[in-house]
Structure formats: C-alpha cells, structure tokens
Amino acid sequence: MRTTLRPIYEEYKRLGIDQQIDYAKFYLYSIITHSTAIEGSTVTEVENRLLFDEGIGTQKPLVEQMMNLDLKAAYEQGLIYARQHTDYSVDMLCGLSALMMKNTGSEYSAMAGSFSAANGELRLLNVSAGIGGRSYLSYQKVPSHTEAFCQWLNEERQHIDPKDIESVYDLSFEAHYRLVEIHPWADGNGRMSRLVMNMIQYEFGVVPSIVKKEKRKQYITSLEQSEEKKRSDKFKLFMLDHHCENLIKQIAEYRKSMEDEPPISSQKSSQKSSQKIIGLIKENASITTQQMADKLGISRRAVAKAIAKLQAEAIIRRVGPDKGGHWEIVKESN
User: Fold this and answer.
1) What CA–CA distances, in Å, run from 323 to 32, 53, 236, 288?
2) 260-292 per-position pLDDT tens digit
3) How many whole angstroms separate alpha carbon 199 and alpha carbon 205?
4) C-alpha 114 chain-centroid distance
C-alpha cells in the first residue's frame, strides 16, 4: 500500500478530529447514508439524522427510509461484534444480512428451493451483475466459500498488528473484495461487504472508510477491474486513495474552522457562554447540547465548541454515551 496514508492519518489524529462531540455518531450516519446512496437511496445525511434521532420521516420513498434504518440496525450489531472481537461465522454474517434486509428483502423461489433475503439466507440461485452481466460464484459453492472466507478472516485478525494501520486497512479492503467476489446473498452484497470492511476498521481502532456516493462510478469500476483480473490490487488502491482523500478534506475543513481567532468581544461572549453552560449542567447533568443551544439562544455548533474547550481545560467531562450519559463538573472555571 502507499506510504502516504500514515502521515495523513497521524495528522488527523493529532488534530483530535475524531474527539469532537457527536463525532462517532455523525460519522456513522455518514457511512450509512453513503452506503445506501451507492445502492440508489436519495435520503440525505440531514434527513437521516432526523430519521435516526427523532423518528421524523422524509418525503423520500418509504423503501429508501427503511433501507437506511435497517442498515443502521445492522451497523449497531456489527459494532458490538467488533468491540467484542467476535469471530466471524456464516451464521453471524447471515444474521447481519437479515437485519440489513429486514424490511426490504424479497422472497425467492428457485429450482433448489425457496429462500428469503429478509431472513439473511444464502442464495439458492445463480446471479450476474455489472457490465456484460458477469456471473458470480455458483450458488452450490456459496456455503463452503463463505465458510472459508470466515476462517481466512479470523486467522488474519489473529495475526495482524493493530499498530500497523496500513495492514489494518489492507485487510479490511481485501475482506470487502473477497466477500463481494463470493456474492453470498441475492441482494445487499455491497452493503454487507462495506459493513464487514468497517467492522474490521472499528475493531482495530482506525478511522473507518466511507465510500462517498460521488465516487460510485470509480468504486464500481475498480471492483469490476479487480474481479476481471481476479486480483484485488486496483480495488484496494482505489479504496486507499479515496480514504486518504476523505481524511485530507476533513483535515482542511477542521483547520478552516479553527484558523481565525475570534475578536476580544467574541472571546468574552464565548466565556459567558461557557459559564452559562456550566450553570445549566449544575441544574441538569443530563442536559443535551441541543437543549443547551435552545436555552442559550445560540447554535448547537457554538455550544459544541464551548464544550470542547471546557473539556480540553478539564473543567467538565462526559460520563457514558451520548444517550443515557451525563456531564460532570471536574473543577470550577476561573
């Protein structure tokens, strides 16, 4: 893999971009939004935030909303497996597929029998896709090849060095490619492969890759080129370049948001906001950032910046998750 990843990655971590408030939640929402967009969903990130957090639907087709909700459920379970370092198995993968296809999966009848995509069952018919209708692995071979994939991945996970981020990404991209090559299910193979890729990345603590919808054509082309040559090189090279590009863009956006020091009047206003936030926490340790913004009459982003500063100065800290957690005052500010 290219050597440019590490300095970009280390700068990303040095800046603490992944330590911002709600970063993990919104980054995951972005992954989900773009993954479903690759499959044709038109639901935006903003719409998904409302759908996921508030249960507020959009004007988009119901099947697209259900696709996003189901993929969220699959990711939530997948991340539990990742945190627990659970070994991969055919049953585990089919269970995740069942969550992902719960409300959009179809029932199929084939000569070999009936099966349900909604239940995550392996396909019992042959399938073709892509330019020229490329045929994937014969359905008779799917169970044994999926089992072999799980055994291979479990062995690789045992031997990988978590500090070697290049190897972690290489394994995650290779796993994505191999699972797509098998094409175990009648539908949802792309989403499942991206989910497994992200699970590996989450397990070893690196920044997960997002396949942006704007790169859909290049993404599919790189897969097709690799599948044609039976080598993952072109696909992994695309994924590495795309991931570096995404990290560089986030670094630039973060620096732009921090580059201008606010004027003295703004600093004083910020200090007053910080004092008011501390007061709100004293009144209600479970208060949310949105509730703070509403009470103070400022934007949620302004609240987030003030909280980040208070946390950096070890004045307050967050205990527990976004939902169900609470704030603690470590020391009084000056």
Assistant:
1) 19, 10, 36, 9
2) 545 545 555 667 788 888 889 889 988 888 888
3) 10
4) 33
Domain parsing of the chain, residue ranges: 5-254, 264-329
User: What are the tens digits of pLDDT across the range 204-246?
Assistant: 999 999 999 999 999 999 999 998 889 999 999 999 999 999 9
Looking at the structure, give the CATH architecture of the domain made up of residues 5-254: Orthogonal Bundle (1.10)
**Fold topology of 264-329:** Arc Repressor Mutant, subunit A (1.10.10)
Long-range contact set of residues 170-175: C-beta below 8 Å, sequence gap at least 24:
170/1, 170/236, 171/200, 172/196, 172/197, 172/198, 172/200, 172/201, 172/209, 173/197, 173/209, 173/232, 173/235, 173/236, 173/239, 173/240, 174/232, 174/236, 175/149, 175/200
